[in-house]
Amino acid sequence: MNHGYDFPRQIQFANQEEKQEFSKFPTKTGRRSLSRSISQSSTDSYSSAASYTDSSDDETSPREKTQVNSKGSSDFCVKNIKQAEFGRREIEIAEQDMSALISLRKRAQGEKPLAGAKVVGCTHITAQTAVLIETLVALGAQCRWTACNIYSTQNEVAAALAESGVSVFAWKGESEDDFWWCIDRCVNVEGWQANMILDDGGDLTHWVYKKYPSVFKKVRGIVEESVTGVHRLYQLSKAGKLCVPAMNVNDSVTKQKFDNLYCCRESILDGLKRTTDVMFGGKQVVVCGYGEVGKGCCSALKALGAIVCVTEIDPICALQACMDGFKVVKLNEVVRQMDMVITCTGNKNVVTREYLDRMKNGCIVCNMGHSNTEIDVASLRTPELTWERVRSQVDHVIWPDGKRVILLAEGRLLNLSCSTVPSFVLSITATTQALALIELYNAPEGRYKQDVYLLPKKMDEYVASLHLPNFDAHLTELSDEQAKYMGLNKNGPFKPNYYRY
Amino acid sequence: MNHGYDFPRQIQFANQEEKQEFSKFPTKTGRRSLSRSISQSSTDSYSSAASYTDSSDDETSPREKTQVNSKGSSDFCVKNIKQAEFGRREIEIAEQDMSALISLRKRAQGEKPLAGAKVVGCTHITAQTAVLIETLVALGAQCRWTACNIYSTQNEVAAALAESGVSVFAWKGESEDDFWWCIDRCVNVEGWQANMILDDGGDLTHWVYKKYPSVFKKVRGIVEESVTGVHRLYQLSKAGKLCVPAMNVNDSVTKQKFDNLYCCRESILDGLKRTTDVMFGGKQVVVCGYGEVGKGCCSALKALGAIVCVTEIDPICALQACMDGFKVVKLNEVVRQMDMVITCTGNKNVVTREYLDRMKNGCIVCNMGHSNTEIDVASLRTPELTWERVRSQVDHVIWPDGKRVILLAEGRLLNLSCSTVPSFVLSITATTQALALIELYNAPEGRYKQDVYLLPKKMDEYVASLHLPNFDAHLTELSDEQAKYMGLNKNGPFKPNYYRY
Amino acid sequence: MNHGYDFPRQIQFANQEEKQEFSKFPTKTGRRSLSRSISQSSTDSYSSAASYTDSSDDETSPREKTQVNSKGSSDFCVKNIKQAEFGRREIEIAEQDMSALISLRKRAQGEKPLAGAKVVGCTHITAQTAVLIETLVALGAQCRWTACNIYSTQNEVAAALAESGVSVFAWKGESEDDFWWCIDRCVNVEGWQANMILDDGGDLTHWVYKKYPSVFKKVRGIVEESVTGVHRLYQLSKAGKLCVPAMNVNDSVTKQKFDNLYCCRESILDGLKRTTDVMFGGKQVVVCGYGEVGKGCCSALKALGAIVCVTEIDPICALQACMDGFKVVKLNEVVRQMDMVITCTGNKNVVTREYLDRMKNGCIVCNMGHSNTEIDVASLRTPELTWERVRSQVDHVIWPDGKRVILLAEGRLLNLSCSTVPSFVLSITATTQALALIELYNAPEGRYKQDVYLLPKKMDEYVASLHLPNFDAHLTELSDEQAKYMGLNKNGPFKPNYYRY
Amino acid sequence: MNHGYDFPRQIQFANQEEKQEFSKFPTKTGRRSLSRSISQSSTDSYSSAASYTDSSDDETSPREKTQVNSKGSSDFCVKNIKQAEFGRREIEIAEQDMSALISLRKRAQGEKPLAGAKVVGCTHITAQTAVLIETLVALGAQCRWTACNIYSTQNEVAAALAESGVSVFAWKGESEDDFWWCIDRCVNVEGWQANMILDDGGDLTHWVYKKYPSVFKKVRGIVEESVTGVHRLYQLSKAGKLCVPAMNVNDSVTKQKFDNLYCCRESILDGLKRTTDVMFGGKQVVVCGYGEVGKGCCSALKALGAIVCVTEIDPICALQACMDGFKVVKLNEVVRQMDMVITCTGNKNVVTREYLDRMKNGCIVCNMGHSNTEIDVASLRTPELTWERVRSQVDHVIWPDGKRVILLAEGRLLNLSCSTVPSFVLSITATTQALALIELYNAPEGRYKQDVYLLPKKMDEYVASLHLPNFDAHLTELSDEQAKYMGLNKNGPFKPNYYRY
């Protein structure tokens, strides 16, 4: 199959190593899963999908079916429109944990701040993103949507969206050809031209940029959520080719803290328990990397009685680890004694075969950090080692002397593969996306130029404030006198841009 | 065979309420599951069984099959002897986490302290208990074994035991009739008479006591693990009918701490995550009861950022809660604000309909304490409330105004139903059982009378010491001078009986 | 009167070592300070006394002065009756933290449960014990009081008690002769014969026993608070010479937990900060002993970012340390790396010269456990080592190569010497003493025999319940149905005697 | 010399309120202590000075004495040159905790990076700053020094510096006139012209700027540590009058974290204990403000068993408080129940009379945040309230109904007034200052313009790395391959400027 142009591959593979790794994967999986694994925040679908009762009996491709929703529309393509009712219930359950979006609907509904907005979106399609999409609709937008990942679509949810009138093109298990076909169907419509892009990964953005340059030029703004997508936007901007303002919502304070520190604090425990049933008390653990993810992992494991030490390359983070009560070591000093080795560095080959050879029998190895590069899993695929799959996502790698190392998720992200992302964290992300759309769509001429922007701090604060009711948290207001004393506006922003929360 | 006699029922139902509850259950389940739910420590099998690939296609009753193991013996009855190989691997994996038993095999193997012992056992039949049984064999015992629960047998493990020569009578999904038939087959053998009993629940003990009184009188000792079984033994003893020394291993210090404080500290998080994917940070939680289980739950939830308060009836435990940083409240003062209500009291009707009516939308309710009595689930089965099962073990109970309360495991034990028990905790229990058997079998005449005994503190300490190598923990030894100063034997016991660990 | 007899010495020195150590101390200090150091709970006076403005100019012995209080009585002997007003304010401030006693006054005042009681007491004389004494008076008792320690009396408080009518005989800086003279003045009065003894250390009890045997026989009960005193009572009882029921209040659950776990959790930090201003974050600390005191120390230090490991002789406590996240080591494995070495064993020579020689420069060594035996301080008094006192309670011991070890309180108890005991902890103790007096005084004939008793659990619970209002803690009451289900009286006791809190 | 000019006052008083408050203070104290209270990091001297044996008998002003050191120099002015030996020992003890500076001396001594530097400095004069000064000398600098605070000078240390050849002009208890006289003596010297300024508060900088503009213009760089001083520099820069590059070391990452989060985590406990002996367990505490200081206070108090809630104005910080397990409330909702109220906002009038009126008896109120503005202490100086000083820094404010509120340090900073700053924290600051001096002095032409700069991240990392040996922390090094993958230099900097540690 020839999509004619090949630009995304050149951009998407950060370096030669990734490209080589890619080529080892069976073609059926395609490049999507590889590229998406870089985005920690967009990974909820894998595990929660497990609870779905998707009948996989029907092997007909959705592209070959004709389906009509109850209002007579057929401007969508999903697995099975009849699953809409089940999907609707899932959306309703998700709404309960995403009250910030519901409250945004209420606050902004009167004025319809997205009236006239024509949003084309490309994200995971799950109950939680459905709540986002339906919020955009409630605020006045017209939406067309497709999936950013060929595996993560919850078919029932896609059906429910289609039934409610959103033009959605997505199903679980798309081929690469399907993937681009779906994107194209979103953009390429008679009599409808997108003026806003909401993207997660950058594929939609590039499709529009390359295939429909005239549409691209008239877009008012792009909202991008993922590390990869943001990286691609900065590259475009650097190359002077970004003719549209774009908002990097990945690096908002609120989202960062929730995606990394708070979410990983819980998912490290969850992922380890679900895969290994290990008892944490008394276990000796080394956590490689003491950034936000490492801080979250260390805090949780220590709290449950593990004895945790840390490796770091950055002396400031190392000093923080000391002050937080974690011994800072080199991996080679401790690897023989450890019961668990957890990587959170964002780097590659942190755990090499040399270290794996020295681990003790029963040692658990997993990756919480980045892609699938941190543990050198390839080095374990040698003839003298036996791999034994003992559970889904759990392999025993067995040395000739009988030693077993327990490798989780084949070195891919544990939190992506073996635990779930709470709806509350997804609510933070989705609210941030919605606000960024509203901001870009309504910003007066000139506020944003053809560049990549961070979310204004005041909007970051607004996202946070919309989530406080979940905790019955009551904010204090500055008096006039206090605001003056502090030199602050009573409504924020409350901190300088360089403030470290 | 006529099981028509009814003595166990009279003893087993502690009170009228339980009897009534029993009668509501479908007869197929039978009384076993009800009575067993009282024992926290013997519940591992439920969830870990999930990973087994038991082919349930074969509907023939094992009692009607003829099977022979590779050595030509057919003195067993299991689902399918051909599953032995798979079961053997499971046992080997379990052995890795139960090194205390392996080390006991090594230390005691030379002297064969159980040479001549004829042990009849009735426990869950899982990979972990298989490690125990094979340890007893390694120490010189002959063993015949049956299951204490009609659902919990891991068929592959039973097959592996049968293949290795243990006379095991057990399969998953026995009828009540099967259950007693299996027990009888263990005891009633030509030319073999049990002289030790290892029981979990007391059914085997009672069967021998009632049906084979002459065997019972010649037994050297009984080792009983469960709360229920211990209760029945104390009653027998009180009634002057216990003609055999019995060891209550349920109340050993080590086992208690691990079953309650340390295990629940982890399983509360695990059980909640697996069922609800809830985020703990910022959640308002009330824990009813601040005993060991409550202490474990509170400590874990607080550590992950929940805001926890406690209810208590005992002022000493209440004061401990205060000093540990938990507000002590009455349930009615806080129930409207809570995101989760967790019971750990051992009491009944702690959460009544009155409280359930006042909970907020989305409140999670679960039981970590005792049986299924703490939450008045029966009160929720009224016409105006709708039950919606959203996942296995998770029901939404919906009020007329749309409010949903999320009830886990229908009010049964969360840790039993929705999380696993780590092998390490089971190792503590199994080692305690093995040592108790050795002690009773080898005790000189007169050390134990016809009564129920707690494990001697020195053996409790020995169980602990066998598990220290798992943590690479190095014990300090008293010098002669120090031992004299403290008035202690250098080998323990180190504490008086009334010491509060 | 002849103070020449020596019976207390024979009893008080537990063994030969203590006796030898005693003889090294200057005679001026006398044996009192040595013997008292064993009792952790009775040591508040040292540091809090520091805030007093005692004019030490007046060198006249109180025994040679004639003083009269405002009501014309001179049946007392204190430093200076004119200090009464200052002392009264101190007592009033203490009352604010001891609301349990005030509430006891209110609850029991109507019925005067101590009407007719003639209590002779020997305790530290501080604002807090004054609140106790005045509570006894409010409940109907007549009291005569003396000090159990020659240094700890707060003169102003003694004056206030004398002014209010209590016959108190005590001042700061008594000689040993003064000490016994004061005790005798309490007991030996025309027309007044004690019928209750409240003792802290056992000296008063022994004086009465030896000097006034006829009084001793008619005493209704003895309440003893200290480890030493309790030990002496058990010896008397064992020897068949205890003709009076005695209550061991030292080992009540509530008092034990507060004196050890909760109090040490705070005093370890306080003692270290006040003496050394050390920063805890990142410090490597070994805590010797993981009993209640060790648990408190470890918990606090870990919480503030120290990296803590533990030594233990008892495998059960060692296993607890593991599960709580502390590596269990031998001292010789880690001593070179440590920043602090803290002893909490109750043993002797835990830190020997051998270990001190291997400590690194700047290592802090202190004792939280027992007496002054845990660190072998004597071994440091050798010619090649230089001692440099850098602050009160802080010595630098300097090795020939310049290495400095920082020794706190010369190896005596840090919490006794360098931190304070909160009034709240003293309130627990005082309330326990008051209730024990009431119980013994009012017990029906035959409830208590000539033996040493632990406080009944129900009264232990009552002490706890009287302190709950301090925390605004609300206890839940059992319903009738629940009490029946649990087999409990609704008013307690709620736990069996062997319960481990 | 005319001290009559008033420029510093115009700059230093941020607003009219401060000016008014100032006028209430006795003139002897002068404006210095007021202005200095704003700088948290420079406050060590107060409490540690307590251990000094300063003979205050000699009332002669140092300005009127003639003193000569052992080398014959008299180019200094201190209280008493004979105290030099005592001061030298203090410096040696401080060196033990400041090994980063010692190691800097070693690493840089060969190349003398400050050869030719003529540094005029104005800081607190304590053992710790003496270590800094002597490090600068060891690196090649010539130093003249004066005190930034009229009270904080440790006379013995000043003597030791003078004895060793540093021209120091400072003593404890200077008048305002003395203060400026000392500064002038540092700057105004025949044949010596400063080319570097190290300042703490900005007074020295302004003196040079105003009085010696020709010197000012030739200075190569200014290093400023305090909030106040930095504020003044930014104002100068904004006004276009800063003709010299200046380094703001106050806002370096390492210093900020240590001064605020880590230091306050310990000093909140220390300050409260030393003043009130309060028990933390079970206490209800509200912390106003959840910035770094608030985070440190909350974490420590929670760890010791207090029940902590938080007030916030910033929704992002409020959300962090929720996720960390602290209920976010408004002060008026909880103030009646609190045992302690702690301010950490940096704002004014956070605790007003209205709230103070509603506090319960015994409530402790203190300020950890900023200056003396947070608690409206002035509102308590009304006739109906009685003030009773019960200890140094502790006042009971008594309401007509007898209610007592316990006010610490009269609302000034608790950590400044009632606890100490560990040498380790001061070492971080001093090392940062030394490196900033080296950087500015050696920077190639053009690297720094006439502006205020933050410490380059790489130097921030270097400060951290110099302190890692204190914790025996071992940093991991990037491999070439890893550095390339991450796009980092192997020697750092390791993080982008916007990174939030």
From TrEMBL, chains A, B, C, D:
One cellular-component annotation, GO: cytosol
Cofactor list: NAD(+)
Record GO terms (molecular function): adenosylhomocysteinase activity
Domain S-adenosyl-L-homocysteine hydrolase NAD binding: 260-421
Binding site for substrate: T126, D200, E225, K255, D259
Annotated positions binding NAD(+): G291, E292, V293, G294, K295, G296, E312, N415
Gene Ontology biological process terms from the UniProt entry: one-carbon metabolic process; S-adenosylmethionine cycle
UniProt-annotated stretches for the region Disordered: 1-72
Cofactor remark from the record: Binds 1 NAD(+) per subunit.
Residue stretches of biased makeup (Low complexity): 35-54
SMART domains: AdoHcyase (SM00996), AdoHcyase_NAD (SM00997)
Alphabetical list of PROSITE patterns matching this protein: ADOHCYASE_1 (PS00738), ADOHCYASE_2 (PS00739)
Keyword terms, alphabetized: NAD, One-carbon metabolism
Family recorded in the similarity comment: Belongs to the adenosylhomocysteinase family.
Protein name per Swiss-Prot or TrEMBL: S-adenosylhomocysteine hydrolase-like protein 1 isoform X2
Source organism (scientific name): Carassius auratus
